[in-house]
């Protein structure tokens, strides 16, 4: 990290700009109610489309950033992100936390993500919560609507960040129905659920939490290495929970008191 980067980071810190994307300050409330989950017109593991009722919950407006995760890592001394090739807006840890404080943290496993969310007094969103926060109750194909023009950091998207991660919140036109940012592209996001390709055929329609057992965890949202079709609100992908990659991060969720 060169002296210019150090100066920039100190300046941003002094101005308080790194707190703009703080998980503490940017939780979005998603009110209880029904929404349509899945799609009958896409991959088989997204079928059948079905109505789901969720209690009120909160979800992070942004993906968890390097600077947020760095605080957790310094406080606990555990769950160190993978050091990655110094391309794509990533690189060695903890240097990249100082060079790219507002980029989403990557190189974290599902277990790392769970540990961070517990430390923050929250949890990972369920797959159903993630999809409702992305699509809203009106069944949007992408977080911004049904128009295929991308407002996201995706592969060959001519978005100014081709072949690399972008800072969180860089695409305000791509916000979801509820106002969550980067729920399409940038980085895939860990969810709480185990993956099953037939789960939608027997899932509960009230606060579903995924299968009881499995080998893979569900990731959602697509990333900077994916085309727009893999970044839809219903697209599902599975990943071994112990893997750490340059294209998977996460966001925080919290349950709300049922009386609220």
CATH H level: which superfamily?
A: paralog of FGE (formylglycine-generating enzyme)
Q: Total number of β-strand segments?
A: 9
Fill in the CATH topology: paralog of FGE (formylglycine-generating enzyme)
From the alpha-carbon coordinates, what is the Rg to the nearest angstrom? Answer: 17 Å
Q: Give, in order, the helices and strands.
A: HEEEEHHHHEEEEE
Shape: globular
The description of the largest β-sheet is:
4 strands, mixed
Strand content: 5-15%
CATH architecture: Alpha-Beta Complex
CATH class call: Alpha Beta
Helix tally equals 5
- Estimated helix fraction: 10-25%
Which residues form runs of ≥5 with pLDDT under 50? 1-20
> How are the strands of the largest sheet arranged?
7-6-5-8
Can you tell me the number of structural domains? 1
Structural class: alpha+beta
The overall pLDDT, averaged over residues, is 89
Q: What structural keywords apply?
A:
single chain, alpha+beta, 4-stranded mixed β-sheet, 3-stranded antiparallel β-sheet, 9 strands, disordered N terminus
